[in-house]
Write a structure and sequence with these properties.
The complex is a heterodimer of chains A (410) and B (333). With 410 residues, chain A is of the alpha/beta class. Helices cover 40% and strands 16% of the residues of chain A. Chain B has one domain: ABC transporter involved in vitamin B12 uptake, BtuC, CATH 1.10.3470.
Amino acid sequence: MSVSRIALGAFLLSLATPAFAADDIIIGAIYPLTGNGAQVGLDAKAAYEVEADIINGTHPKIPMLMGEGGGLKNLGGAHIKLVFADSQGDPQKARAEAERLITQEHVVAIVGSYTSATAATISQVTDRYEIPYMSADNSSPSLNQRGLKWFFRTSPHDEMFSAAMFGFFKDIGAKTGKPVKSVALFYEDSIFGTDSSNVQRKLAGAAGLTVAADIKYRANSPSLSSEAQRLKAADADVILPSSYTSDALSIVRSMNEIAYKPKAIVAQAAGFQESGFLTGAGPLAEGILSRSSFAGDAIKARPAIVPVQELFKAKQNKSLNDNTSREITALQILADAINRSGTGKPADIRTALIATDVKGIDTIMPWVGVKFDETGQNIEGTPVIQQVKDGTYVTVWPFDVATTDAVWMK
Amino acid sequence: MAGSILGHNSIQRRRRLELIVGLIVLAGLCLLPLVVKDVYTQNLIILTILYAGLAQAWNILGGYCGQVSLGHALYFGIGAYVSTMLYVKLGIPPTLGMFAGGLVGGLFALLVGWPCFRLSGHYYAIATVVVGEIGYLLFLNWDFIGGASGINIPFKHESLVELQFRVTKVPWLYLVIAYAGLAWIIAWIIEGSRWGYSWRAVKDDVTAARSLAVRVFPSKMAAAAISGCLTGIGGAIFAQFVGYIDPDSIMSGNLSILIALPAVLGGVGTLWGPLVGSALLIPLKELSSSYLGSSGSGLDLMIYGALIVLIALARPQGLISLLGLFRKPEGAR
């Protein structure tokens, strides 16, 4: 074969591929895919894959940011490619995997990571290697207070969540004439429960509310009946539980066994928002309130929820929840920033992220919007309060996105 | 008489040979950074060598002295917390703090040993599990040391004294080599010392040992102190390496198993068992989860578990028994 024929072949080959065959943009995702948090991690994986398909694929336009499909326009239609890594919920492992994704897979950003302990080490690594870390679902308030330059969090953190609860108390008290005077704190002893209770204790003090009981319990306790007795004895206006699924079920059942019907329960999401809790507790769950960052029923205010919900259901055979909705939104915001960066280089992505100003209507979240402060925290990620009615959560606060009125202290 | 002198000489010769092999291995490890440039593999090697040191520390008590401890995460965690608290709260660099961590770790091993060494065999092992769990719960609920939220070690600047390195792994590699080397040489010294013989006697038969005037309780305590101290130093290094500690990741029962496992698989009460065990176990665990774990199928854990079972079935005396060269010292069983 002569040189000219090879050249011709090469020329024809170059015609066959698009002139600007844009390289894929590779994003790492670190989650517990085995071990304790595996189910949450696998749901997260599905959520990210759904959002990547929305960004990359061809489909009728979904009414939200990055909803038209066809890849990243400013990067010649480059596709988002996801690389997943298993943290096993272990901070050491998460750190090593972050380094692997950066040095071997050449990711331009990392999203993660469910547990706050793994986020602590991943975001240290991303800061050292100078690539953005997008926290989709880590709720520890301390994470963005560490002076990191490459840390961004679309999700509200626990302080914002608890502040929403106390905002709700104020509003509902004024509306119904039944104000909250006392609260009972009930929380598990891991990082989630202790952080949550610390904030609630502080906010209760600031709002002038009495803390009638302050009960810390061992996570995954075989029995919570003595704790239920203490809650009954305190009989606060509102019980504020921070619990995972099995403990949430256990305390609700224990209170029922001693015939104690609390005036109101306002949960720090987690276990109380899980479908396992709702089916397990059945009628006992009715009327329980919980904070949430997602309002799946607010389909009028957020028209993109229906099509995204359908795609997610088709993939994972369950509805979007508090976590998966936040994960979809995190990747959406990150992809938008990568698109706006124009280069797909980490430094430009960071600049684009800092300039982010997305309205809530362009997402599936009930938030005011997405706008990062100088610590990388989204200051417009306003949570909602939901209540169980007929076995599902419906949004009752803030009143402008609420789909129904709250049943309050009956 | 002549026979025993000959035996003594052959032991001396073998010990000298082991020392030479040890030095060759050490030199080989020190050359690694010249060959391995990839950060992920460096991470893997650092963990492997760190666990080799930890398993050797465990081996001193669990192997030579025969006191099977399943609560070593306690000393590991204490070492990690002491050095981290000294650094974060008082600014004392971890290069000093790790020795403080080791000291406190050793002290706690003595505190735990005082009541627990009155138990023997299985009862002792169970007691260490319980003590480890108590330690975990105390740390989880102790707000002064960060409780469940853990402690974050912020990165301020590149510093050798403070063990702060932005991306390079090479200093860590040398640090863990020094650590595992220290653990190895201590084990080597013990093996040939009067202590080593007393401990092995305690392991083999307490009554017989006592009849030969071996002081059983002090022997156990000495082994525990050395083992706890070395484990504490390892914990301090690990904390600084990871940059974040919380009771879940450094004081859980899982970790106690992971410290003991390389020694058990490699060969309990042998000089090389812990090193061989971790050289196999840690890369297997890390690589399988990195490259198979992302599917979420749990395949990596099955392979890891199956291999442990296989090794335990095929070589119950430990992998090291495959190599005739590194036999246990004569007189030991």
